[in-house]
Amino acid sequence: MDKETIKTLLVRLQSGQISVDEALTKLKHLPYEDLEFAKIDHHRQLRGGIAEVIYGQGKKIEDAVEIARKIYDMSGRVLITRASREMYDALGLEDAHYHAASRIIEVGHGRKQIGRIVAVSAGTADIPVCEEAAVTAAFLGSKVERLYDVGVAGLHRLLNNIGIFEGANAVIVAAGMEGALPSVVGALIDQPVIAVPTSVGYGVNLGGLTPMFAMLNSCVPGIAVMNIDNGFGAGCLAHKINTLAGHD
Hints:
By secondary structure, the chain is of the alpha/beta class. The chain is 39% helix and 19% strand. It contains 10 helices and 11 strands. Helix 4 crosses helix 5 and helix 6 runs parallel beside helix 10. It starts with a helix and ends with a helix.
């Protein structure tokens, strides 16, 4: 439940459109709702600006569905990351959408998208992580553009599309293998770069450790590095930076 939802609720209470008991029913689960197997943090968006998001991987389908429906009932929106098609089918909400590439379930009315973020993938195998970042940022209310398959093995592809970064407030770059692309992008633009190492690559990629170490050791200033395959975290950080840019 966000600030606007609570303000609307209080205005309706003040004007007599709803009763005190009805308002209490809406607010009674703040700051969290105890389901025994889960404690849903309905207060999180009010505190930190981003509502609780469900990490679907490893959860029982029925548990994820119950949590999602509780969040949806309270706020009208919910996001589930690392979700399966079976989880989406079980959810059974009319306004739900399954993003197959990112494995994200998005439910609820869209927000006005502000500012501008660019999400870049080094290769097509990095697209799922990049899409997780892009879908997350868009769900939160940021305008996102995508630029895919412009890794350093064919640097001309990036240079031919350099104009896409004009006017962006944050740039997300997902790369596996040796993880060089964020440094290249960061050296060419003046926006903050959020680097996401992916687990894409052969043996010495070490499940994403090699690109993560390369990104952490970049000599290009203004690069932040996320955890391996953490597109969700990159999307959240990019959205917060974009929001702070003050665009309406």
